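Office hours follow-up: a student asked to see two folded examples consecutively, so here they are.
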Amino acid sequence: MNFKMFNILSTTGIMVLFLSFFGCKENLELENENLKKPDELSASSNPKLTTTVGSNTQDFYELKDANAEKTRLKMGSPWSDFDPTGFYLAPNTTMQIVVKQLKGTKRPKLLIGTYSRYSTNPNPQEFTLTADTNNITSNEYGGLIWVRFRASGSPSSRVRITFVSGHISVPTYIKNQTTAADWTNQLNSFTQSPDVVLIGDRVYQVYSRERALTTQAQDNNYVLSKADQVMDVEDAISGLDSSAPEHEPNIHQRILMTENDGTGWMAATSYRTSYVTNAASAPFTSKIGGIDGWGPWHELGHMHQQQPWKWDGLGEVTVNIYSLAVERAMGVTPSRLKRDNVWPLVATFLADTSSTKNFNDNAFMPSKREWVRLSMFHQLWMAFGDNFYHQLHKATRIENPSVNTDEEKMRFFMLKACNISGKDLTVFFRKWGFRVNENIYTEISALNLPQPVVEPSTLSEQ
């Protein structure tokens, strides 16, 4: 509105127009947001994350509980169910925020600190927010500020959080949005936060300010794109294609990848994957898109790993079904199994005709036993392709089998493998030393399936 119009309208008229316009505008925004489909809000509880992160006012929606999604997808760990705010709270500091209820009655939680970022403080402080003013005081560690807004039932609430005082801006890189000049400016301007945040479509990456300075010249878009690709490929091999409600992708679309200042190497557990400083070049540089990216492919694979066919001893085996899928997508050749000379060990194991040979008994396995066991799963991929694992994951979600013992899990896997492939895999499983109750082999025989044209156990990459 220009100054001439101000001269024409009375002060009262101006106020009426002002309140009417902006009041209607907010109501219209609320109405339009309420009309959105749930899947439009699935990437984050802050659907405008990439435009409002770092702003003093941000809106958040309830999403399905991460543990409920874990159960639906038959995975072992809940995914990250929190969003970055773009702010940091220093140790022993009080911040003030105001929470406005826009819809429903439930309110989110505020997290101070990042899962697994620091070995002395591996879990964040968690505060349940109240309506109106909240004064939050950090412990002796402080940390990045996150918002967790998960529903115990059906998601129905929405809030607006205004950061009033005490918070500190964090260098935040957003894929395909932040420029190199922007990033440099943030690193030069926001110097009080010890950590930085990078936001992709499928990941959050958190690491030290020192690392950000030393990698400042790298192409962060490339790194984030490759991390996103890892997630997309692992979702794809998991059959998460939205073809049915059971096969909708996890509503929490991003997984935290964080640098860890402790010892060890890499890890995956509830809400995050972590990488010690000496291993952090693999996830946080261009290495993630090549042969050295296996580590993060593997850790993100743990976050996809289905449980009903993961019997004892397969924790570090079936996870690499996802790693191998990423390896193919990244164009890395030869495969890890060939590169590490696993196939001769496989041949030795398969040539053993002992009646007591046991796939699950380490005493019968040659060296590199996890890789030898992985080769059995890879032979099924070589024989039947990606679709075999698409259908296995889908059947697991649909049937939701009640399996508790190793034999119950093996039975489920064996019968599903035969049904999905359309072949009687008795010879294959016996050659691999699947020592189960003979009734399971009787069940396979009763399916009346043909023998494979090529016995899968004969396949290799030699």
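And the second, which I mentioned at the end of office hours:
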Amino acid sequence: MSETAIELIDVNKWFGDFHVLKDINLTVGAGEKVVICGPSGSGKSTVVRCINRLEEHQSGTIRLYGNELANDAKSVTSIQGEVGMVFQQFNLFPHLSVLDNLTLGPMKARGLSRAEAESRARHYLERVRIPDQADKMPKQLSGGQQQRVAIARSLCMEPKVLLFDEPTSALDPEMISEVLDVMVELARDGMTMVVVTHEMGFARKVADQMVFMDQGEIVEKASPDAFFGAPRTQRCQTFLSQILQH
């Protein structure tokens, strides 16, 4: 039995009067790949944002490797060292070179020297297949290259878990595969990943567990074979029929 990396127990969240997450229960084992999908506004992104403390949940429990996440500065700091996040928009510092974007976190948060941070940055740029872009500024890169820099930046912190919030939705179609190929390699190397995405081909290829959300609830959890082959609920069947036509 693998170690539990992430555990959500009866997690609820409101934005004002809007009940955005309703009794969310989810367990992610170490090394497991979980894909969360569902219609727009179903709460998918809010789940991952609660895991890395960009959002606070109001009730229920979230644990990372057995440690409960509280809504305090210490908890936020500890989580940011263990959990990497890749956003829809790349969130790179536009005034810093690619290399400087990658070395900033390890130097400030991990205490690495410039030389150590740079060595690590170059290693992960190699990993995401753009070692030759180190000295460029973000605006000189394509969207796909910028997203791969964002993935490398997360990897430079050597997190235990990587969260992806619709990482390809801001990309032109021809750039999507270059980002997904990198994510597939990370998955095969054993990285624990929670991925919010509509890329169902990617999900079939790498997911250990599919999670379908609608209206703030987890409606179905299943293996990819069961999820795509025999979805249990009408809501899931409708979603899949719509998304697989595109």
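Two things to take away from it. The radius of gyration is 18 Å. DSSP finds nine helices and ten strands in the chain.
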